[in-house]
């Protein structure tokens, strides 16, 4: 998560671990809020069925 602080600029926060972001953090989504950056979206149907989610992140040095 990043926030803009006047006179400082953009600062990244890791709310899960309670720390400022560092070089070992990887941005995986960009959005105005959680709905813009959610890893899954759609409609939930009650009843039988199966769901799975697979995520792959590749890093390349520029």
Protein model, in words:
The mean pLDDT is 85. The protein has one helix and three strands, in the order βββα. The chain has one helix spanning 34-37; strands at 2-5, 9-14, 19-20. It is mainly beta and 62 residues long. It has a domain at 2-37. A three-stranded antiparallel beta sheet has the order 1-2-3, with no helix packed on it.
Annotate the secondary structure layout:
Blueprint: E1 2-5, E2 9-14, E3 19-20, H1 34-37
Antiparallel strand pairs: 1-2, 2-3
Shape: elongated
Largest sheet: 3 strands, antiparallel
**Sheet with the most strands: spatial strand order:** 1-2-3
- Derived from helix and strand composition plus strand pairing, the structural class reads mainly beta
Number of helices: 1
Q: Write down the secondary-structure element order.
A: EEEH
> How many beta strands in the DSSP annotation?
3
What is the mean predicted local confidence, pLDDT? Answer: 85
Specify the helix fraction band. Answer: under 10%
| CA gyration radius, whole angstroms | 16 Å
Q: Unreliable runs, pLDDT <50, ≥5 residues?
A: none
N-to-C terminal Cα separation, in Å?
23 Å
User: Beta-strand level of the residues, as a percent range?
Assistant: 15-25%
What descriptors fit this protein?
62 residues; mainly beta; 6% helix; elongated
Task: Please outline what is shown here.
The protein is mainly beta and 62 residues long. The chain has one helix spanning 34-37; strands at 2-5, 9-14, 19-20. The chain has a domain at 2-37.
């Amino acid at each position: 998560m990043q926030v803009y602080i006047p006179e400082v600029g953009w600062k990244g926060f890791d709310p899960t671990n309670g720390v400022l972001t560092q070089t070992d953090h990887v941005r995986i989504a960009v959005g105005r809020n959680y709905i813009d950056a959610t890893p899954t979206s759609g409609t939930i149907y009650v009843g039988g069925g199966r769901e799975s989610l697979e995520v792959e992140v590749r890093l390349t040095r520029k």
